[in-house]
Amino acid sequence: MDTKHRIIDEALTLFSEKGYANVFVGDIAERVGIKAPSLYKHYKNKRAIFDAIIEEMNLRFAEQAKSLNINGTDAVADSGIYENMSEESLLRLGRELFLYFLHDDYNSRFRKMLTIEQFNNKELADMYSKIYVDDPLSYQGMLLGMITAAGMLHTDNVEIMTIHFYAPIYYLLTICDREPDREPWALKTMDDHIRQFNRLYGRTA
Amino acid sequence: MDTKHRIIDEALTLFSEKGYANVFVGDIAERVGIKAPSLYKHYKNKRAIFDAIIEEMNLRFAEQAKSLNINGTDAVADSGIYENMSEESLLRLGRELFLYFLHDDYNSRFRKMLTIEQFNNKELADMYSKIYVDDPLSYQGMLLGMITAAGMLHTDNVEIMTIHFYAPIYYLLTICDREPDREPWALKTMDDHIRQFNRLYGRTA
DNA sequence: TACTTTGGCTAATTTGAATTAGCCGATTTG
DNA sequence: CAAATCGGCTAATTCAAATTAGCCAAAGTA
Fold this sequence. Notes:
The structure is a homodimer. In chain A, α8 (158-178) runs antiparallel to α9. Helices cover 78% and strands 0% of the residues of chain A. Chain A is mainly alpha-helical. The first copy, chain A, is built from nine helices and no strands. The structure holds a DNA duplex.
């Protein structure tokens, strides 16, 4: 990774821990292993580093969204979630979602940064909502809708069903961001949540 | 309200909007209608203002917790939630909870401040978890547990049932904090959530 | 090979925000 | 009523952090 990327990488780490205003240009430089003035060979100023992070993340999430959509419906059908749609496949879906969001290097740092900066910056508020509210709802809504259409879950309101699936995951996620020690409890709770979700929505009406 | 309280009141507003580091002592003073140096007649320094806010909020929440516990079980029984436990009473419970957390003057500002500062400050992280994770779960868990014991809801895992009740409320709350325009949608979604919750857990097993 | 660009450095400089000094009128209190 | 004390003000002061100036060596390039 070249210096220019190392800078936004280290800056993201620091911003996610302390917030933009509490990170000094010198802190970033130190992490990168250079002196503060050298940073200015790569970025016009501190704000430009921040903007570069946003831009980079926008790219990443756009790619991710595209890759999910390209395969889209087919990928899900292909994934075998239909053939043997069981509690186990739902459990897998939830756990993967949770652990991906929680541990993915960029997701976790970027989410914390957005959490800290969201009230200061309309653009970040919108990104937060898109990434952690609207996109998951629409993607999981699509999945759960298909599973429902296939007769394996039952509801007349997929949106609420999706919130019932996702809100507890989101809730546990924010807890782990704040208190990583609770992760084992969160994982267990996740499993219990999904098993119960499956029982609640899985019965034949 | 005397100056000393006006200061922490305005400071809380500003901290909740921009975060501690982005608020200048002069901003607070201006809101209060005095000059920055005059602030120092009331507080030793900027950090002391922040600490005073924390202390004040600790008091408020302690009082609130006490008043909930004093009446405790009796209050619930008294509240008539039993006699005609209906979808309507659950709806009321959810809506009140939601609107109280969302609009209560101190709750809403303080929650935003905690959201911004949580990763910087272990004490605040703990407060956040207590106020918005642990206390609601234990209080609502108690209520729902009683309703379940009375045979009006059905589950063998009250903790998960409580998360199923509260996590969507929490989720909607964080959305409204970030995007107040979504409040009407959130309220409607709240109602749909609770009706569905009631149907899911209300059936006789 | 010589010229240019790149990316590092140290030593200023600038800026702006927190805090202190010290004055002063109003209010409280012995 | 006189002396504290309170709570405001203006004018410094301090200090830390962002940024700029300007030097230099190594790497790339005509």
